[in-house]
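U., I forgot to send this yesterday:
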Amino acid sequence: MNQTTEHTNPLLAAGLPRFASVRPEHALPAIEQRLADYRALIERIEAGTEAPDYAGVVEAETLADNALAAVWSTISHLHSVTQTPDWREVYPACLEQLTRFHTERSLNRVLFEVYRSLRAREDFDRQPAAMRASIEHELAGFRLGGVDLPTEQRTRFAEISLRLSALGNRFGNHVLDATEAWSEHFSDVEQLAGLPPAELELLADMADRAGQSGWLANLSFPAYRAIITYADDRDLRERFHRAHVSRAADTGPQAGRFDNTPIVAEMLALRHEQARLLGFDSHAHMRLSRRMADTPEDVETFLLGLARRARDPAQGQLDELEAFAAGLGAEHPLAPWDLAYYSEKLREHALGINQQKLKPWFELETVFDGLFTVADELFGRRFTLQTDVETWHPDVRYYRVSDGSGETVAGLFLDLYARERKSGGAWMDVCRSRMVIAERTQLPVAYLTCNFAPPANDQPSLLTHDDVVTLFHEFGHCLHHLLTRVDLPGVGGISGVEWDAVELPSQLLEGWAWHQTALDRYARHVDSGEPLPPAWLKALKSDRQFHGALALLRQIEFALTDLRLHAGRAPDPVVVHRAVHEELAVVPMIDDNRFLMSFSHLFDGGYAAGYYSYLWAERLARDAFDWFGEQGLFRREAGAHLAREILSVGASRPMSESWQAFRGREARLEPLLDAYGIAA
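Result:
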């Protein structure tokens, strides 16, 4: 292989990614070069030419892994936000190379024994917490990677890992393609009666970007939400609902076109087989071996306990909704495509507000000022826009993060608006991790990506309050990464944190999107600058619990479906989902519902046997926010305590220890129930 250098490939350059220069053709050569460097290091460790100590092994591998991660994070990110045909072609090739390498490394018996020898050293317990945790995490990773298996089984384990990686990528491509391929065009605005002006502008902009006049709606979430929530035309809502819940499936208007059904079946079977090779009863048992929750049975007990508390209140909320809808002439019982529509009308009737009425108080720039105020007042971090950093799109911004002395300590990329060929949803990801090794320091940098409606017609971008909550949630993940004081990337920031605890900081920060003390700082009318009216502020607090039991039951349904799919031998996923729905839900579901075939969390993300993590971590987050209510929502000492005991320590110690250090007791369930308006 010809040597690739930073002079010929911008992906290999030091510092922040050179987005203006990176092209798809740079991706595979850069990955191959970093993998060659890493393999050469492993060969030296195996041969004994690298000192078999902490610096010669752990620190040397950390440097090699960090160099590889810098390349891969850029490729992975560009694939998510600019899904051109070229990026979609090169991404799976890079992913295959990366998966193959990590699989072969996890099966490397010599390297495993080197780490075991480090763990057995007499001075191990005197090493810094991050070093000890890093070695423990590596040893667990080797064991879960199949290193103890006989040769034949190790070969099969590696084959499964490669296949699962490829299938997950295909699953995600199918979801994106199905989301964008189905659409309806409207030439007469009367066809969209009921949609607020902002939603009409969104659909008009979609049509304009597609080179059409009028209005256009596909199955991307902003467009789907506009139709399903506001369209007076019931038939239109039904068409969109049926198309949305059957995306990438064998039913519905795109039946078989981007069908993920065989992919899901194969992934479930392979996950189960891989877990059994390692001696676990199921994939769920394997995944929970490194979580706060101990067993799938513990998780199911937790979820069913919540469901018992939520079901009667949820039924009452549905009965109220149906009675209200009947008063407006709706059919009984309500169909799935009626729920969001009448729920929004009931919300406005009961509370006097709706998401659209609130939008003028949540202008994007003002909300960001409030978001950064939280970071400054609680944690002493300031965010300053820096315009000389390369980005991948003109809308993207980069912020330098500094501490109280003005020293730069981190960085943040923001990509906030929806656009074509950009993956939907909102997420945080790692650009660079904090690393301090041998006098070399790398500062943490994060990506914060959303899909908000962009500014239109020279008007600023206005957010729904749901958007505000999403923004605070993802910013919480960013703070977890940016505030770390751990020097080894593998156990710093969000890396290595138990999956059912990693949502704690994000869900905790959502509290500042609801509390009056916080809202007073950034909920200002876009034209007048007036704060949110007191009556609306009161209504917003009630809105947080509006149909809360229904929302909670829906999340429990997703989590329990995921758990049961992965707790046994690959069952029919549609049958499992329907059985869980019938056991828990009070709302209807159509026969053609194939939601699982577009459930990217489970099949193109890290949440397999882990979707319960949202609720598990939310219990911690609600309890933690109660503590902030007692201490002071913007009290610097309270923020410092959170940063010291949870945010800054990453996975250098188990989250159970971090939680005890922060709260001094186990988390209570009552704050979680109260957040959903359910009596404890």
